[in-house]
Design goal:
Three copies of one chain form a homotrimer. With 210 residues, chain A is mainly alpha-helical. Chain A has one domain. Chain A has helices spanning 7-30, 35-57, 63-66, 68-83, 85-89, 93-117, 122-143, 157-172, 177-198. In chain A, helix 7 runs antiparallel to helix 8 and helix 8 packs antiparallel against helix 9. Chain A is globular. The N and C termini of chain A lie far apart (46 Å). The model of chain A has no long low-confidence stretch (mean pLDDT 91). Chains in contact: A-B, A-C, B-C.
Chain lengths: 210, 210, 210
């Protein structure tokens, strides 16, 4: 999530932050939280993943707290959702899911890239990319005392991990950061959209209840 | 929460830490936790906000873990609540609420001031002040798997945020740290006490359940 | 959890990481999580305590994220539990409890020792040792939205704290790191096993419900 020069990346980063803030705010309204709860959930969902990553890799203070524009963007997304709740829930579900997939992909790629730049090993960098992408949503679920949806539903974190791995492999194959990030983004986005349309999900084990 | 010279500030800081420890310990007893749970909840409620702030702004190790007197104070508050539970719950509710409001105000002001000193932008510093004030209580609620009360009830974090903003605005207007902190403290305390007496609360949106 | 030369310590450290990963994976399967959830819970249970300690004492990035072998070991434990679920749950309960006690003891001792090396005060170092030992299990419980078992059940964190205190006292008495760690390990392990066999538990207070 650090400021980038490339306008496409900036646009995607803003889109991701904004859509994640809206999702957090919607979850807060569904849980009967007040205005403050809506803003906090919007902020946490949008910026929580990047903050957790930065705390883990020792990049402090986190970028999301150093650059006031991220906080402003996340709080604006939350406030707009509060004010225009009826309009927001009228947005077609598929549009929201597609924007969410774009946010997931950009966060995964940005988180992986930032970790690599700070000298984190590629293996751990793919985890950090995935945490960047899904950490905000997991934080939102935990604040609402739900088991994080990412641990039990379909291909979501897996898509982020896949995009991160593609980025790392392409970098190892000699590709430069920008094209590697581009293909990582595309890989994550396509896997996520296919998973939604084809109802893919990961295997699970039937527990024995004693 | 760093050690201050001013005896009034030291007194308020000790009061805040101690009363928050008692509140955490009471919540643990209500949830049937054992002695260790009571001590952990007391510690987390009293010192969790400052620890979260210090981790976020990169001041590590956190002050609450560097100075053994904070831990001792918090654990003493928890242990006394465990031993004198009947006496503690006999304390008039309004007295507890007033002490809690004083703790909220001193933590908000101390957290904002410390963030400003470390070069955090004023906008983010008000958030850090609020997290210092309410983070411990939120951690206590999450450890008991409750949705943090601060996200859904009346004017609590909002009072802390208000006090932090007053401090920041007065500093920008040229006031020196001590009087700015004093007025920030008073602003938070008064808003919180008024909110209790006048039953103020933030607006919320009626969710649509589909 | 830093790499040690002593083969016994390395063996215990690997055992602890692996058994904690299995316990996390079992809890994930019982909660109907999918493969990703099983891997994440295994990872969090095995390495969460050390990561929380390193974030708190400012040793970033955490050792568990710098050395890929820890992540590999934890993920292998999770994956094997997923694949061999029936075999894992057929392991005698007492064997699992004994291995868990060994993991608890080695993590408590390693966490205390690492904190002391980084100049943390002995009092806080015993807390950091205890957090290293029980933090992963607490994180696992929180991700499944359970109140951390460590806050309410028998002598578990208390055994870790006891081992940490023994280590610190022996160091203060002039003993060298290795024998002090050895006796700390033995103290924690014995207290934990006795607590299991003799059904020891901490006192609690009967709450008044108003």
């Amino acid at each position: 999530m650090p400021a980038k020069q490339n306008p496409l990346v900036v646009g995607l980063d803003i889109t991701g932050t904004f859509i994640f803030a809206i999702e957090g705010a919607l979850a807060a309204i569904q849980a009967n939280l007040d205005l403050l709860g809506v803003l906090v959930l919007g902020f946490s969902t949008a910026l929580g993943g990047g903050i957790i990553r930065d705390v883990l890799i020792g990049a402090s203070p986190p970028a999301a707290l150093r650059d006031w524009r991220y906080a402003t963007l996340a709080l604006t997304g939350g406030a707009l959702t509060f004010i225009c709740y009826r309009q927001v829930i009228a947005v077609p579900h598929l549009a929201l899911l597609s924007l969410d997939a774009a946010g997931l992909a950009i966060f995964a790629v940005a988180g992986t890239e930032k970790s690599l730049e700070l000298g984190i090993s590629p293996f751990i960098a793919t985890m950090m990319g995935t945490i960047t992408a899904v950490g905000g949503g997991a934080l939102r679920d935990l604040l609402l005392t739900h088991v994080p949806a990412v641990l039990r539903t379909d291909i979501y974190a897996t898509a982020a991990l896949f995009g991160s791995i593609i980025l790392v492999l392409l970098r190892r194959a000699g590709l430069r950061p920008k094209p590697a990030a581009f293909f990582g983004f595309i890989a994550c986005f396509i896997v996520r959209m296919l998973a939604i349309h084809l109802h893919w999900h990961l295997p699970s084990v039937n527990p024995v209840h004693s």
